[in-house]
Amino acid sequence: MSEPVQIGRREREILTAIVETYISTGEPVGSRTLSRGSREGLSAATIRNVMADLSDAGLLDQPHTSAGRVPTAAAYRYYVKGLTGEASLAPAEEGLIKDTFHGVNDMQEFMERTSHVLSLLSQNVGVAVAGIGPKNALEHVHFQRLAESKVLCVVVNKNGIVRDRIMRLGKDIPQLELDAAARFLNENYRGWIMEEIRVDLARRLDQERSEYDRLMHSVEELYKKGALESETTQDVYIEGTSNLVVDDHDRDRLRELLKTLEEKQRLVNLLSAYVDVRQEAVRVVVGLEDTLPHLSNFVLIGAPARVGNEVMGSLAVIGPTRIDYEHTISAVSYIARLFDHIWNDSE
């Protein structure tokens, strides 16, 4: 996604007014409307000239020749960059959130309520994903040869969940090599989240050969056959799909988004792509076309759910680009901080 062009103070103020007016009304914004609300008393003619410059810069569209202008995705990105981050929720909304989570001591219940309250506050889709943190961290792995090219894989997570599966390999691996592969994984990756293990293993398999060649070949075979695949470790909660209202020409995009919301793994992948576990603040992504080409007219506002430095999941709001950005950012940020506070106090 390209960065928006640099514009001057007057252009920036008029662009902000157009974005906020369009978010509020949903109607193309005309120069006369802006002129009536101009603090500087700018004439409609002056504003029209600025709007023409903003259109040339790719920040405004004109749906019809005689209509007003609407912001482009680049305009929304520019607008979001200009937000101060100092906005706060109304006391009644903070009270609603606190009441929603009062007495909750189960993480899955917290995430379920998170999707509900985010949907309520944003009037869009609230999403919460639990289980991408320490719950899915490796404690121990063991391989047992059952027959030629047939291996039992036993994985124990940090929370004591034991998962076993029988794998049919593309080649036979002797028990001694299976033991060596298990030692390698246990010594190098105990305490790592499964997703992080798979990323690092893929890197090592590309780089490390030489004296480890035989061991790494065995590890690669076990890895590719699903030894460290996650199962039911990510609980996904979604609420508010009925809130999605789009223009007629966006119906196909809406159907694509609803399809994504219905498919758990696609939704997990979407949040994983955009909600960086290393980030501290809320992230706003205008246009999701990098992951899903049909979703250029939708926005994701999300944050990781942390307990201290440990990432336990993620939460987000998904909706059309004409969303109340400042209010939604405040809601996501508030709940992310509350998550950290509640689970830090419970430990």
UniProtKB/TrEMBL annotation:
The keyword Repressor applies. Residues 109-329 form the Heat-inducible transcription repressor HrcA C-terminal domain. Belongs to the HrcA family. Negative regulator of class I heat shock genes (grpE-dnaK-dnaJ and groELS operons). Prevents heat-shock induction of these operons. This is Heat-inducible transcription repressor HrcA. The keyword Transcription regulation applies. Keywords: Repressor, Stress response, Transcription, Transcription regulation. It comes from Koribacter versatilis (strain Ellin345). It comes from the Bacteria. GO terms for biological process: negative regulation of DNA-templated transcription. GO terms for molecular function: DNA binding.
